[in-house]
Amino acid sequence: MKKKYIVFIALIVLVIGVISISVNKSKNDLKNDKELTKDIRELKTFKTFHYLSKDLREKAQDDSLHASYIYEDTTPPVLKNEADLIAIVSVISVDGTDIEFEPSVGSTYGKLVINNVFKGEKNEGDVIDYIKIGSVMSLEEWEKGQPVAAREKREVMRKESRIDASTIFYALHYEYDPIIEDGKTYLAYLKYNENVDKFEVIGRENGLRELNINQKDEVSSVSYKAQEYNIKNNETDKFESLDEYVNKYLA
After folding, report:
1. What is the pLDDT of residues 176-188, one digit of tens each?
2. 226-237 pLDDT, tens digit each
3. Does the predicted model carry a pTM greater than 0.85?
4. Using CA atoms, how far apart are residues 82 and 78, in angstroms rounded to an integer?
5. I need a labelling partner for 27 at 20 to 30 A (CA). Which of 11, 20, 72, 128 fits?
6. What angle do CA 162, 168, 174 make, to 5 degrees?
Protein backbone atom coordinates (compact mmCIF):
# COMPACT_ATOMS: atom_id res chain seq x y z
CA MET A 1 0.00 0.00 0.00
CA LYS A 2 2.82 2.40 0.77
CA LYS A 3 4.43 1.56 -2.55
CA LYS A 4 1.22 2.55 -4.36
CA TYR A 5 1.18 5.91 -2.59
CA ILE A 6 4.85 6.48 -3.44
CA VAL A 7 4.24 5.66 -7.13
CA PHE A 8 1.15 7.90 -7.22
CA ILE A 9 3.04 10.83 -5.64
CA ALA A 10 5.94 10.32 -8.06
CA LEU A 11 3.54 10.50 -11.02
CA ILE A 12 2.03 13.75 -9.73
CA VAL A 13 5.50 15.28 -9.34
CA LEU A 14 6.42 14.14 -12.87
CA VAL A 15 3.24 15.67 -14.37
CA ILE A 16 3.78 18.94 -12.53
CA GLY A 17 7.38 19.02 -13.78
CA VAL A 18 6.30 18.46 -17.40
CA ILE A 19 3.64 21.19 -17.11
CA SER A 20 6.19 23.57 -15.59
CA ILE A 21 8.69 22.86 -18.39
CA SER A 22 5.96 23.39 -21.03
CA VAL A 23 4.88 26.67 -19.47
CA ASN A 24 8.46 27.92 -19.25
CA LYS A 25 9.13 26.80 -22.83
CA SER A 26 6.02 28.64 -24.00
CA LYS A 27 7.15 31.78 -22.17
CA ASN A 28 10.61 31.51 -23.71
CA ASP A 29 9.13 30.93 -27.18
CA LEU A 30 6.89 33.95 -26.71
CA LYS A 31 9.88 36.01 -25.58
CA ASN A 32 11.90 34.87 -28.59
CA ASP A 33 8.98 35.66 -30.91
CA LYS A 34 8.73 39.14 -29.42
CA GLU A 35 12.48 39.67 -29.85
CA LEU A 36 12.26 38.47 -33.46
CA THR A 37 9.32 40.77 -34.12
CA LYS A 38 11.27 43.62 -32.55
CA ASP A 39 14.27 42.94 -34.81
CA ILE A 40 12.06 42.84 -37.90
CA ARG A 41 10.29 46.02 -36.87
CA GLU A 42 13.58 47.84 -36.29
CA LEU A 43 15.10 46.79 -39.64
CA LYS A 44 15.59 50.11 -41.42
CA THR A 45 14.20 49.86 -44.93
CA PHE A 46 13.42 52.92 -47.01
CA LYS A 47 11.45 53.45 -50.19
CA THR A 48 13.63 55.38 -52.63
CA PHE A 49 12.55 58.67 -54.18
CA HIS A 50 13.63 61.03 -56.96
CA TYR A 51 11.97 64.38 -57.49
CA LEU A 52 12.23 63.98 -61.27
CA SER A 53 10.53 61.25 -63.28
CA LYS A 54 12.65 58.47 -64.71
CA ASP A 55 11.60 59.51 -68.20
CA LEU A 56 12.95 63.06 -67.77
CA ARG A 57 16.22 61.80 -66.35
CA GLU A 58 16.75 59.37 -69.18
CA LYS A 59 16.08 62.10 -71.76
CA ALA A 60 18.44 64.58 -70.10
CA GLN A 61 21.33 65.60 -72.33
CA ASP A 62 24.72 64.78 -70.83
CA ASP A 63 26.89 67.86 -70.37
CA SER A 64 30.30 67.07 -68.87
CA LEU A 65 32.44 70.05 -67.88
CA HIS A 66 36.18 69.54 -68.28
CA ALA A 67 37.78 70.33 -64.92
CA SER A 68 41.48 70.36 -65.75
CA TYR A 69 41.66 74.03 -64.83
CA ILE A 70 40.47 73.27 -61.29
CA TYR A 71 43.38 72.25 -59.08
CA GLU A 72 42.24 69.85 -56.40
CA ASP A 73 44.09 66.82 -55.07
CA THR A 74 41.45 64.10 -54.93
CA THR A 75 43.69 61.10 -54.30
CA PRO A 76 42.39 58.67 -51.63
CA PRO A 77 45.03 59.52 -48.97
CA VAL A 78 44.17 63.24 -49.22
CA LEU A 79 40.44 62.57 -49.17
CA LYS A 80 40.83 60.30 -46.13
CA ASN A 81 42.40 63.17 -44.18
CA GLU A 82 39.83 65.73 -45.33
CA ALA A 83 36.69 63.64 -44.84
CA ASP A 84 34.72 63.68 -41.59
CA LEU A 85 32.93 60.52 -42.64
CA ILE A 86 33.95 57.64 -44.93
CA ALA A 87 31.31 54.98 -45.36
CA ILE A 88 29.41 52.68 -47.63
CA VAL A 89 26.07 54.42 -48.07
CA SER A 90 22.79 53.78 -49.85
CA VAL A 91 20.92 56.73 -51.31
CA ILE A 92 17.34 57.00 -50.08
CA SER A 93 16.33 60.08 -51.98
CA VAL A 94 17.17 62.81 -54.41
CA ASP A 95 14.96 65.58 -53.07
CA GLY A 96 16.01 68.34 -55.43
CA THR A 97 18.71 70.36 -57.13
CA ASP A 98 19.76 74.00 -57.13
CA ILE A 99 22.43 76.37 -58.44
CA GLU A 100 23.14 78.22 -55.19
CA PHE A 101 25.82 75.83 -53.93
CA GLU A 102 27.57 75.41 -57.30
CA PRO A 103 26.36 77.54 -60.25
CA SER A 104 28.37 75.80 -62.98
CA VAL A 105 26.87 72.32 -62.76
CA GLY A 106 24.36 72.71 -59.94
CA SER A 107 24.15 70.45 -56.90
CA THR A 108 21.96 67.59 -55.77
CA TYR A 109 20.65 67.06 -52.25
CA GLY A 110 18.68 64.40 -50.40
CA LYS A 111 19.02 61.67 -47.77
CA LEU A 112 21.14 58.55 -47.47
CA VAL A 113 21.47 55.71 -44.99
CA ILE A 114 24.84 54.66 -43.64
CA ASN A 115 26.08 51.09 -43.88
CA ASN A 116 29.74 50.25 -43.11
CA VAL A 117 31.71 53.07 -41.47
CA PHE A 118 35.47 53.36 -42.10
CA LYS A 119 35.92 56.78 -40.51
CA GLY A 120 33.63 59.06 -38.51
CA GLU A 121 31.24 59.15 -35.60
CA LYS A 122 28.09 58.03 -37.39
CA ASN A 123 26.67 54.52 -36.92
CA GLU A 124 25.23 51.90 -39.23
CA GLY A 125 21.57 52.74 -39.83
CA ASP A 126 21.94 56.50 -39.32
CA VAL A 127 20.22 58.66 -41.92
CA ILE A 128 21.92 61.92 -42.93
CA ASP A 129 21.29 64.80 -45.32
CA TYR A 130 23.80 65.06 -48.15
CA ILE A 131 24.69 67.50 -50.91
CA LYS A 132 26.81 66.77 -53.96
CA ILE A 133 28.04 68.85 -56.87
CA GLY A 134 26.47 67.77 -60.18
CA SER A 135 22.81 67.57 -61.06
CA VAL A 136 20.03 66.78 -63.49
CA MET A 137 18.09 70.00 -63.88
CA SER A 138 16.13 72.04 -66.38
CA LEU A 139 17.78 74.66 -68.54
CA GLU A 140 15.43 77.18 -66.96
CA GLU A 141 16.70 76.36 -63.47
CA TRP A 142 20.37 76.32 -64.51
CA GLU A 143 20.14 79.73 -66.16
CA LYS A 144 19.12 81.33 -62.87
CA GLY A 145 22.77 81.14 -61.85
CA GLN A 146 24.12 82.66 -65.05
CA PRO A 147 24.87 86.34 -65.81
CA VAL A 148 21.71 88.37 -66.50
CA ALA A 149 22.82 89.62 -69.93
CA ALA A 150 23.58 86.13 -71.22
CA ARG A 151 20.35 84.79 -69.77
CA GLU A 152 18.24 87.48 -71.45
CA LYS A 153 19.95 86.95 -74.80
CA ARG A 154 19.25 83.20 -74.73
CA GLU A 155 15.66 83.86 -73.70
CA VAL A 156 15.09 86.05 -76.79
CA MET A 157 16.58 83.36 -79.04
CA ARG A 158 14.35 80.68 -77.51
CA LYS A 159 11.21 82.75 -77.94
CA GLU A 160 12.01 83.18 -81.61
CA SER A 161 12.47 79.43 -81.92
CA ARG A 162 9.51 78.68 -79.62
CA ILE A 163 11.64 76.62 -77.23
CA ASP A 164 10.48 76.18 -73.63
CA ALA A 165 13.51 76.12 -71.29
CA SER A 166 11.50 74.36 -68.58
CA THR A 167 11.18 71.25 -70.77
CA ILE A 168 14.88 70.90 -71.58
CA PHE A 169 16.95 68.96 -69.05
CA TYR A 170 20.70 68.48 -68.73
CA ALA A 171 22.84 66.05 -66.75
CA LEU A 172 25.46 68.52 -65.52
CA HIS A 173 28.70 67.32 -63.97
CA TYR A 174 32.46 67.64 -64.02
CA GLU A 175 34.39 65.15 -66.13
CA TYR A 176 34.45 61.63 -64.57
CA ASP A 177 32.45 62.87 -61.59
CA PRO A 178 29.19 60.88 -61.33
CA ILE A 179 25.79 62.35 -60.57
CA ILE A 180 24.43 60.72 -57.42
CA GLU A 181 21.36 58.50 -57.92
CA ASP A 182 18.64 57.21 -55.61
CA GLY A 183 18.59 53.47 -54.92
CA LYS A 184 22.32 53.05 -55.52
CA THR A 185 25.02 52.11 -53.03
CA TYR A 186 28.38 53.87 -52.92
CA LEU A 187 31.65 54.18 -51.07
CA ALA A 188 31.52 57.87 -50.17
CA TYR A 189 33.84 60.49 -48.69
CA LEU A 190 31.81 63.12 -46.87
CA LYS A 191 32.59 66.33 -45.02
CA TYR A 192 30.10 68.25 -42.92
CA ASN A 193 29.34 71.64 -44.44
CA GLU A 194 27.91 73.96 -41.80
CA ASN A 195 26.82 76.53 -44.40
CA VAL A 196 24.16 74.16 -45.75
CA ASP A 197 23.90 71.91 -42.67
CA LYS A 198 24.54 68.83 -44.79
CA PHE A 199 27.30 66.31 -45.41
CA GLU A 200 28.99 67.23 -48.68
CA VAL A 201 30.30 64.47 -50.93
CA ILE A 202 33.85 65.60 -51.65
CA GLY A 203 36.59 64.51 -54.03
CA ARG A 204 34.92 64.62 -57.43
CA GLU A 205 35.72 61.39 -59.35
CA ASN A 206 37.24 59.65 -56.31
CA GLY A 207 34.76 60.80 -53.68
CA LEU A 208 31.81 58.68 -54.80
CA ARG A 209 32.48 55.12 -55.99
CA GLU A 210 29.49 52.99 -56.95
CA LEU A 211 29.29 49.37 -55.71
CA ASN A 212 28.32 46.62 -58.14
CA ILE A 213 24.80 46.36 -56.72
CA ASN A 214 21.68 46.80 -58.81
CA GLN A 215 19.76 50.04 -58.34
CA LYS A 216 16.80 49.35 -56.03
CA ASP A 217 13.35 50.74 -55.26
CA GLU A 218 14.07 50.13 -51.56
CA VAL A 219 17.32 50.39 -49.63
CA SER A 220 18.23 49.10 -46.18
CA SER A 221 21.02 49.49 -43.69
CA VAL A 222 23.23 46.49 -44.48
CA SER A 223 26.77 45.57 -43.44
CA TYR A 224 28.58 44.74 -46.67
CA LYS A 225 31.56 42.34 -46.81
CA ALA A 226 34.29 44.05 -48.80
CA GLN A 227 35.50 40.71 -50.21
CA GLU A 228 32.19 40.22 -52.02
CA TYR A 229 31.92 43.56 -53.84
CA ASN A 230 33.63 45.81 -56.35
CA ILE A 231 33.62 49.59 -56.80
CA LYS A 232 33.54 51.54 -60.03
CA ASN A 233 36.56 53.43 -61.27
CA ASN A 234 34.90 56.57 -62.62
CA GLU A 235 37.71 57.27 -65.09
CA THR A 236 37.87 53.81 -66.70
CA ASP A 237 34.21 52.94 -66.03
CA LYS A 238 35.37 49.50 -64.85
CA PHE A 239 34.82 47.83 -61.49
CA GLU A 240 37.71 47.08 -59.13
CA SER A 241 38.05 45.10 -55.90
CA LEU A 242 36.52 46.87 -52.90
CA ASP A 243 38.53 44.63 -50.57
CA GLU A 244 41.83 45.66 -52.14
CA TYR A 245 40.83 49.33 -52.02
CA VAL A 246 39.87 49.15 -48.34
CA ASN A 247 43.09 47.36 -47.38
CA LYS A 248 45.20 49.84 -49.35
CA TYR A 249 43.55 53.13 -48.38
CA LEU A 250 41.17 52.68 -45.44
CA ALA A 251 42.68 50.01 -43.20
Report:
1. 999 999 999 999 9
2. 999 999 999 999
3. no
4. 6
5. 11
6. 140
